[in-house]
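[recover] target loaded
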């Protein structure tokens, strides 16, 4: 534990109480979910921690084809929930199984992952590709696509608001997720989540997000448009690989060079798109 200076700990009973406690600290309090990130934080300015694990946001529900997940639901709880396992033929299972290791997944929550939003993380990449919607309560109830949320100064938003729910839309198609990392439990050197819908043997729609570039996930809308109307084939996948390799926006960090990322980005996206298309055609 690196977090130092905390003097008071609160167990909020509901969203309202969490918000009023946050407000009372004037920026010197923080919401605590699984604590996986906050516990390692080097912040020294926090006086109070507000535990939100008991505020009624641990749930997974299917409603009108959408999957609604309360933000204090742990990654393990999601992985074990039948509705979450069913969602899009196991799309969430495929992603969450690749997040860290089981003891960490027992503590880490979906909400914490969305707010922490490490650029190398897998969950934001998947949520952006899936068109997930975030709901939160601060001065008022608000919602936005996770993709749009990440274009705002979202960390400042959640210093005064509780992220309450992530809703995943139904898709008539299939998704696939790919991650390159040094070892099974390690963080990504590059990741990609792709969705494809097939109609009359052709690609009706495509969603492609690439993350850990080393920046946070972004959609490749140019590729999504180019794929529409094409028939899946080895030639098409080869073109996808070459174009992504040519156009991918990648950079250096201490884990991998831009040159290496460029050389693998095409392969990672090709594999994910091809696998999603194969599943969608079944
Ligand atoms: C060693 C390690 C390995 C990891 N590996 C991966 C990986 O392979 N792939 C991947 O995708 N991710 C990975 N992660 C990231 C992990 O998924 C997140 O750190 C975790 O989900 C955070 O959740 P938490 O509940 O512990 O958040 P906390 O640590 O409790 O909170 C994190 C931040 O979010 C805020 N917060 C939490 N919940 C809410 C809420 N409901 N509303 C508003 N603000 C909130 C807190 O105030 C804090 O600022 C890894 C993290 C670690 C530490």
């Amino acid at each position: 534990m690196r977090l130092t200076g905390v003097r008071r700990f609160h167990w909020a009973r509901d969203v309202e109480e969490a918000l009023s406690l946050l407000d009372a600290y004037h920026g010197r309090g923080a919401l605590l979910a699984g604590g996986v990130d906050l516990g390692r934080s080097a912040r020294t300015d926090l006086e109070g921690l507000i535990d939100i694990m008991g505020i009624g946001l641990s749930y997974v529900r299917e409603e009108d084809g959408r999957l609604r997940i309360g933000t204090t639901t742990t990654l393990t709880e999601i992985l074990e929930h039948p509705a979450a396992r069913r969602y899009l033929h196991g799309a969430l299972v495929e992603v969450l199984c690749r997040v860290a290791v089981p003891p960490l997944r027992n503590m880490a929550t979906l909400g914490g992952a969305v707010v922490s939003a490490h650029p190398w993380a897998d969950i934001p990449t998947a949520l952006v590709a899936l068109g997930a919607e975030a709901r939160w309560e601060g001065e008022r109830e608000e919602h936005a696509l996770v993709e749009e949320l990440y274009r705002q100064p979202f960390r400042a938003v959640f210093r005064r608001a509780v992220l309450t729910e992530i809703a995943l839309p139904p898709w008539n198609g299939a998704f696939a997720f790919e991650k390159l990392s040094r070892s099974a439990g390690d963080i990504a050197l590059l990741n990609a989540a792709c969705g494809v819908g097939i109609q009359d043997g052709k690609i009706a729609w495509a969603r492609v997000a690439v993350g850990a570039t080393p920046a946070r996930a972004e959609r490749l809308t140019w590729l999504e448009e180019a794929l529409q109307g094409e028939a899946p084939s080895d030639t098409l996948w080869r073109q996808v690989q070459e174009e992504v390799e040519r156009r991918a926006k990648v950079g250096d960090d201490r884990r991998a060079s831009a040159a290496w990322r460029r050389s693998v980005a095409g392969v990672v996206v090709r594999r994910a798109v091809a696998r999603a298309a194969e599943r969608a055609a079944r």
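[recover] notes: The chain has a mean pLDDT of 97.
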